């Protein structure tokens, strides 16, 4: 019986006190939220005044603040890295332009060197041509007899046909034949 009385008292407490209290609290919360009151913020600010609840709320707030601070630090580092990347990209583009300009200058200088070498070679050839055309064919043939066929060929190709013929006629017949064959192959 005693146990029955205890359970009856518990049921009476639940039905008469607890359920109406929860119902009234819910209705009161709904009415306040329709009136524009932020119930959760009010509950937090009220809970901060209660010692036990204050510790629970402050821990969560501190964690949230810590997370927020860390997030700002990471965002700041990320922004710094992005700025650094932009600076490096600008430097890279500048260096690439410099490399392109230098390659252009190198190509231009190589062309100038090639032109200068060609000019010098042409001047040397003109000088050699003048020397051999000023010589008698007998003297030219005597000098050429001491040279190899490639050297003779390069000189003969500079000279006019009449001068070539005169020099070849003064050379040894066998050597003149070899040079004539070489000249014929070069012109083909």
Order of helices and strands: HHHHHHH
Tell me what portion of residues adopts beta-strand conformation.
under 5%
Number of helices: 7
Overall morphology: rod-shaped
- The unreliable regions are none
Mean pLDDT: 85
Helix-strand category: mainly alpha
Helical percent range? over 70%
What is the rounded Rg? 54 Å
Largest sheet: none
The total beta strand count reads 0
Distance between the termini: 135 Å
Q: What does the model show?
A:
- By secondary structure, this protein is mainly alpha-helical.
- It contains seven helices and no strands.
- The protein has helices at 2-34, 39-47, 51-134, 137-144, 149-156, 161-170, 173-187.
Question: Which secondary structure elements does this structure contain, and how are they paired or packed?
Answer:
Elements: H1 2-34, H2 39-47, H3 51-134, H4 137-144, H5 149-156, H6 161-170, H7 173-187
């Amino acid at each position: 019986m005693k146990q029955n009385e205890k359970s009856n008292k518990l049921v009476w407490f639940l039905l008469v006190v607890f359920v109406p209290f929860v119902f009234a609290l819910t209705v009161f919360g709904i009415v306040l939220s329709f009136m524009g009151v932020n119930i959760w913020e009010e509950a937090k600010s009220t809970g901060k005044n209660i010692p036990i609840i204050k510790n629970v709320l402050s821990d969560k707030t501190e964690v949230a603040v810590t997370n927020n601070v860390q997030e700002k630090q990471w965002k700041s580092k990320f922004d710094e890295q992005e700025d650094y990347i932009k600076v490096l990209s600008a430097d890279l583009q500048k260096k690439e332009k410099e490399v392109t300009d230098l390659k252009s200058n190198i190509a231009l200088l190589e062309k100038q060197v090639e032109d200068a070498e060609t000019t010098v070679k042409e001047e040397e050839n003109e000088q050699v041509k003048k020397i051999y055309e000023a010589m008698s064919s007998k003297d030219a043939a005597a000098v050429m007899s001491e040279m190899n066929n490639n050297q003779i060929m390069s000189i003969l190709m500079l000279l006019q046909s009449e001068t070539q013929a005169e020099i070849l006629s003064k050379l040894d017949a066998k050597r003149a034949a070899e040079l004539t064959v070489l000249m014929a192959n070069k012109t083909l």
